């Protein structure tokens, strides 16, 4: 009895270690957003160069996620997890001492390798270290950390930048990484392994990387150049490369005796349903957070810290409801928990759509925040359990890796797709309403060029810039400002409708494909 209690105590401390690693890896996806203006001033960087501070992390993170998962299955999940944590922590320190944008972007890519390793192996380690009801609670806690780290990024980043400097968002990872590494070494069990004795599937790795790289880079190029056609070589060309690489990957993996990914896993409708729901969650909700932050900072006028504090009304539910949802997911229908949670989030976005006006404040947004927070907190635990419950134990690492890759794919796709909806609505509204202001032709041309070139992110900042002093002196400036705010709102409501639509699609897919197994989580107890 004493021995069993000791093992249980050790498992939960091990979960703390794994959760710290996951928290750091996902936090760095969003925490940098609020620091970008400060980094730009520090290095006098152009906006296109500044974007790579985010893109370098996102692209490398998605590209190597499955590889790190496979290496964990081959050589030991705990070992690869600890190596990933060391890479992430060292890279964080290198980011903090970067002296130019090139160094920062390279070290961000290195940091992403470590982050993806920790993320891809975290669920498999947790699933193999816990059994029965404890597994549901543990996965619920881990899933809550995933949701919390994504949502809380603006708050953490805003505080660190305001209290210290942008370098603090990286240096804070050093003590956390060291503590997490020690806890992992001492308290995380290696668990049963099914090491692959074959060679590493290098062709599979290359083809899967080309698929991810081509798709993400094509979408990023489209996002950064709204006027480019989808058939533009730098958009359509990269995406065509992704499609060709994906086809070759599927052919190769089906023929390979020791594939990087056992595609037979997708024959399980429950796993496929969970993966689709995960993709739509990333695209419809997690990608949306970036645009919510733009609304709150650039148009409502909150500081980074004020924005993050208010968004706690969304993220705070993850800590309270996540573990409860994890326990419930082993007792009640997972598919309905997932579907209803996604519909609650969609309802929150639609409630917010009704409140958006040029003078909106947090006082009108908080009911929508509560709905989004409840749905976001309760969707991840049953989704994770559903994805892993029918998977063979030796494929746990690969299954969790696929789930996370698709979620990250969803975020990348959602940021571009929602961004295109925002820009399209913004431009359409300006095109219709600017001529109605009857501004002097020279002023109208200058305003039109500046607003269209700056895009919806910079609309209000352009009006407040020193160069716009002459515009602010015009009698019709209040009408001009209202027109710009209305244009952003038009685009933002399009974002809300698109996000809600993707979440509803995810809910339908979950309801149709996910089957509640009578075994519960028996398949993963072995």
Automatic annotation (TrEMBL):
Membrane-traversing stretches: 12-32, 52-68, 80-98, 110-130, 137-160, 166-188, 200-220, 232-252, 273-292, 312-329, 336-356, 362-380, 401-420, 495-514
Protein location: Cell membrane
Keywords: Cell membrane, Membrane, Transmembrane, Transmembrane helix, Transport
GO cellular component, one term: plasma membrane
Membrane topology: Multi-pass membrane protein
Keyword Transmembrane helix appears in the UniProt entry: yes
UniProt domain Major facilitator superfamily (MFS) profile: residue ranges: 14-518
CDD domains the UniProt entry points to: MFS_MMR_MDR_like (cd17321)
InterPro entries attached to this UniProt entry: EmrB-like, MFS, MFS_dom, MFS_trans_sf
Signal peptide range: none
A Pfam family: MFS_1
GO molecular function terms listed in the Swiss-Prot or TrEMBL record: transmembrane transporter activity
PANTHER family (UniProt xref): MAJOR FACILITATOR SUPERFAMILY MULTIDRUG TRANSPORTER MFSC
Family: Belongs to the major facilitator superfamily. EmrB family.
Name this polypeptide is given: DHA2 family efflux MFS transporter permease subunit
Organism: Periweissella cryptocerci
């Amino acid at each position: 009895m004493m021995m069993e209690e000791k093992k249980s105590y050790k498992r939960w401390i091990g979960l703390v270690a794994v959760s710290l690693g996951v928290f750091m890896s996902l936090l760095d996806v969003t925490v940098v957003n609020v620091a970008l203006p400060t980094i730009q001033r520090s290095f006098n960087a152009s906006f296109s160069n500044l974007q790579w501070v985010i893109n370098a992390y996102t692209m490398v993170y998605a590209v190597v996620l499955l590889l790190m998962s496979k290496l964990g299955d081959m050589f030991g999940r705990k070992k690869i997890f600890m190596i990933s944590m060391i890479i992430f922590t060292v890279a964080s320190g290198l980011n903090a001492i970067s002296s130019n944008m090139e160094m920062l972007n390279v070290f961000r890519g290195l940091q992403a390798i470590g982050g993806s390793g920790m993320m891809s192996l975290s669920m498999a380690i947790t699933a193999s270290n816990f059994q029965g009801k404890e597994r549901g609670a543990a996965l619920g806690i881990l899933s809550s950390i995933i949701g919390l780290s994504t949502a809380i990024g603006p708050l953490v980043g805003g505080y660190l930048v305001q209290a210290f400097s942008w370098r603090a968002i990286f240096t804070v990872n050093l003590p956390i990484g060291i503590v997490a590494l020690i806890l992992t070494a001492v308290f995380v069990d290696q668990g049963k392994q099914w090491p692959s004795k074959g060679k590493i599937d290098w062709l599979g790795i290359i083809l899967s990387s080309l698929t991810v790289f081509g798709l993400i880079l094509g979408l990023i190029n489209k996002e950064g150049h709204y006027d480019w056609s989808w058939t533009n070589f730098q958009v359509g060309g990269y995406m065509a490369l992704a499609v060709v690489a994906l086809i070759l990957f599927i052919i190769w993996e089906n023929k390979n005796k020791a594939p990087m990914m056992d595609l037979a896993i997708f024959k399980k409708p429950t796993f496929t349903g969970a993966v689709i729901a995960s993709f739509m969650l990333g695209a419809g909700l997690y990608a949306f957070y970036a645009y919510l932050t733009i609304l709150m900072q650039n148009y409502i006028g909150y500081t980074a810290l004020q924005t993050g504090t208010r968004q706690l009304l969304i993220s705070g539910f993850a800590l309270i409801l996540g573990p409860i949802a994890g326990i419930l997911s082993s007792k009640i229908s997972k598919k309905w928990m997932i579907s209803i949670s996604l519909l609650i989030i969609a309802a929150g976005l639609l409630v917010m759509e009704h409140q958006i006006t040029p003078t909106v404040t947090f006082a009108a947004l908080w009911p929508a925040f509560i709905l989004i927070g409840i749905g976001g907190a309760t969707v991840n635990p049953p989704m994770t359990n559903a994805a892993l419950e029918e998977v063979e134990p030796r494929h746990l690492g690969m299954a969790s890796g696929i789930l996370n890759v698709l979620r990250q794919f969803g975020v990348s796709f959602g940021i571009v797709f929602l961004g295109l909806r925002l820009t399209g609505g913004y431009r359409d509204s300006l095109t219709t309403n600017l001529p109605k202001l009857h501004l002097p032709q020279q002023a109208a041309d200058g305003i039109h060029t500046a607003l269209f070139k700056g895009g919806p992110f910079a609309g209000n900042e352009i009006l407040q810039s020193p160069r716009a002093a002459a515009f602010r002196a015009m009698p019709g400036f209040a009408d001009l400002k209202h027109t710009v705010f209305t244009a952003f709102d038009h685009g933002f409501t399009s974002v809300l409708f698109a996000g809600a639509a993707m979440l509803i699609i995810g809910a339908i897919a979950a309801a149709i494909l996910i089957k509640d197994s009578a075994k519960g989580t028996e398949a993963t107890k072995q």
